[in-house]
Design a protein that fits this description.
Low-confidence stretches: 172-202, 242-255
Strand content: 5-15%
Number of strands: 6
Distance between the termini: 82 Å
Strand order of the largest sheet: 4-3-2-1-5-6
Number of domains: 2
Structural class: alpha+beta
Number of helices: 5
Largest sheet: 6 strands, antiparallel
Order of helices and strands: HHHHHEEEEEE
Mean pLDDT: 74
Length: 255
């Protein structure tokens, strides 16, 4: 009676959870794979029950069945005991199978959720850069300037590491025109007007940026970091290595 009742109870609990999972998924189809998905949902709900149940079946249930089988003169219902033990074993193995099948997909979804959290920080940062550029017609020269001039209501910007930000400005070397050869003894006066002064202006407009975000380990400077560069978001491992042009980064010349 113990083995038959426990087997029936295990089957009943799994069937009820499968039916509840089917209706909670909200599917209109009654096909095979729909029920498989419902069974996977039920298996994950019963995962903490199936482990001790498996131990109980392997240890105590098997001992009970052996005692019944070895002493038929004292016990009856060997057929029902065998069916109950078999039903419990099948349900537990089915739960383990359904969990094992869905583990890769759940791990992939978990990784995608972590990547989505990083991307959310990157998109918030890029939106702040857009606000700054629209207002000041330049990118901020450093991260602190961005924090001072752009609102950060949810604290996302302040949670980022300012060392990951690097602003650059493309420039081209302009050759100076040689002064014309003076003819005769007439010396032209040099124009001191600022309108014709071709010296480099003091205000430098930054046009490009690179922002490095920490990856899953939350530590900046490792191989799992993310890179946001001029609106393009990718993992550091996916960034193609190649030459870059000359640029000015916060006033410092970089190769």
């Amino acid at each position: 009676m113990v083995l038959a009742a426990s087997g029936s109870l295990v089957v009943l609990v799994f069937l009820v959870q499968t039916i509840l999972g089917f209706f909670q998924n909200g599917s209109d189809s009654y096909g095979f794979w729909t029920w498989v998905a419902a069974g996977e949902t039920a298996a994950w709900r019963l995962k903490w029950i199936s482990i001790p149940l498996l131990i109980a079946i392997l240890v105590f249930g098997r001992k009970l069945y052996q005692s019944v089988r070895l002493q038929p003169e004292k016990f009856c219902g060997l057929k029902y005991a065998r069916r109950g033990l078999l039903a419990s074993s099948i349900v537990v193995l089915l739960i383990a199978l359904l969990i094992g099948v869905t583990v890769p997909a759940r791990l992939r979804h978990r990784q995608l959720s972590k990547e989505a959290a990083v991307r959310a920080q990157i998109y918030t940062f890029e939106y702040a850069l857009l606000e700054y550029r629209l207002k000041y017609r330049s990118l901020p020269p450093d991260f602190q300037t961005l924090l001072e001039r752009v609102p950060d209501p949810d604290g996302t910007l302040r949670s980022l590491n300012p060392k990951g930000y690097n602003a650059t400005a493309e420039f081209a070397a302009v050759s100076t025109e040689k002064s014309r050869t003076l003819r005769g003894a007439v010396i032209r006066k040099a124009s001191l007007s600022s309108a014709t002064d071709d010296t480099t202006p003091s205000g430098l407009a930054f046009t490009n940026y690179v922002m490095r975000f920490p990856g899953e380990d939350k530590i900046l400077g490792n191989d799992d970091d993310w890179i946001g560069q001029d609106g393009v978001v990718m993992k550091l491992s996916e960034v193609a290595k190649g030459g870059v042009g000359r640029s000015v980064s916060a006033g410092v010349l970089e190769p």
